[in-house]
Each structure stands twice: as structure tokens, then as C-alpha cells.
Design a protein that fits this description.
Arc Repressor Mutant, subunit A, Tetracycline Repressor, domain 2, about 0% strand
Length: about 200
């Protein structure tokens, strides 16, 4: 591939990266508008303004494009992971996490892409591995906050903080889906979501 042959930082390398990014952006838009399975590589190439051959210079096919998008999800989660790594009191960190993650997920494009990636992850092991790795990192970071909160007596004892972290994340995701499907702004659902989560983990 051209981006592998060109030395890093060269004009050619930058142009290749821009073209690759344009293909990914076009694929995201196609998946959002038509769904993964209803989108063909020709649709993506046309949307990106590149030839089919040019697209194949960067990606072996539609599956590889989705795998790249799943990989990029990790980059988008970086601010949320940084928030979970803060040393503020655990309740404040949890509150901030719920707000940030719910707000991120409640964008219609993120809901649709998550559904598309998740459904393909069930069918394809490599996509599934990426999805599981992203989720595991988020769960581990949240579980560490819960564990710290238990040690500081802010949170009640839990059989397994990782299980609780999974449940919290799934609850946030479900609320985000509800927000998009019902047309209710996440801001209207957030206080109830936070109240439920805090009541479930708070000491006493």
C-alpha cells in the first residue's frame, strides 16, 4: 500500500493519509444513510470521489473499512478514558463519566454506527475482537473508579466491580438509544439516569 511505502512526513504520505481519511468519512456517511449491508464499495468510492481501484489501494474491501472504523472508536473514547483516570473523588468522576459518555453516545450517528459495528462484530471475529477490546478498556477504567470508591467508603461493597461497570455502561447505552429513537434530548434523561446509577452504587 502507498501509505506503507512512503516515508512518514512526506508530501506523498500526507496526501495518502488524507485520501484514506476521505474514504473512511465517505464510508461512515454511507453506513449511516443506507446501513452497512446495503452499502457497496462502489457507493463508498463514489462518495469519496475516488476510483474503485484507488479505494482498493487503501482497503481490501468493505469489511476492512469497517474494521478501521472500529479501531478509530478507541481514539474517540480517549477523552472518556482520560476522565476516568482522574484522581478526583470517585463519585465526582463517576458523575462526569456518565454525563460525558451519555452525551457522546446520544448523537444519532454514534448510535447508528454502534449498532452497525456491533451486529457485524457478532458475525466476524476480527471486528468482534476490536469491539471487545474497546469495551474491556472502558470497563476496566470504570471498575477501577468503583473499586476506589469502595475503598474510600463512597460506594457500597460490590460482588464484582467489573460486572457493575458493565451494567452501568449498558444502562448508559440503552438510555442513549432511547434518546435517539424517541427524539428526547439526552439532557432530559440525564438526571434520572444519574440518580438511578448513584442510588445503585452509593454507600448506605
Amino acid at each position: 500500500m502507498a501509505d506503507q511505502r512512503a516515508p512518514a512526513g512526506t508530501k506523498r504520505d500526507r496526501a495518502t493519509a488524507q485520501r484514506r481519511g476521505r474514504i473512511l468519512d465517505a464510508a461512515v456517511m454511507c453506513f449511516l444513510e443506507n446501513g452497512y449491508h446495503q452499502t457497496g464499495v462502489r457507493d463508498i468510492a463514489k462518495r469519496a470521489g475516488v476510483s474503485l481501484g484507488n479505494l482498493y489501494n487503501h482497503f481490501a474491501g468493505k469489511h476492512d473499512i469497517l474494521a478501521e472504523i472500529a479501531t478509530l472508536e478507541r481514539t474517540e473514547l480517549a477523552p472518556v478514558l482520560a476522565l476516568l483516570a482522574r484522581t478526583d473523588p470517585a463519585p465526582a468522576v463517576l458523575d462526569g463519566f456518565v454525563t460525558a459518555y451519555a452525551t457522546y453516545l446520544a448523537k444519532p450517528e454514534n448510535v447508528i454506527l454502534t449498532i452497525e459495528i456491533t451486529s457485524e462484530a457478532i458475525r466476524k471475529p476480527d471486528i468482534g475482537d476490536l469491539f471487545v477490546a474497546n469495551r474491556a478498556e472502558l470497563v476496566d477504567a470504570l471498575a477501577a473508579v468503583l473499586t476506589r470508591g469502595i475503598a474510600d467508603r463512597h460506594f457500597r461493597a460490590m460482588p464484582d466491580p467489573r460486572d457493575t461497570a458493565h451494567l452501568i455502561i449498558e444502562l448508559i447505552e440503552g438510555t442513549a438509544y432511547r434518546s435517539v429513537l424517541s427524539g428526547l434530548a439526552m439532557g432530559k434523561l440525564l438526571s434520572g439516569l444519574k440518580d438511578f446509577i448513584m442510588a445503585a452504587v452509593r454507600e448506605g
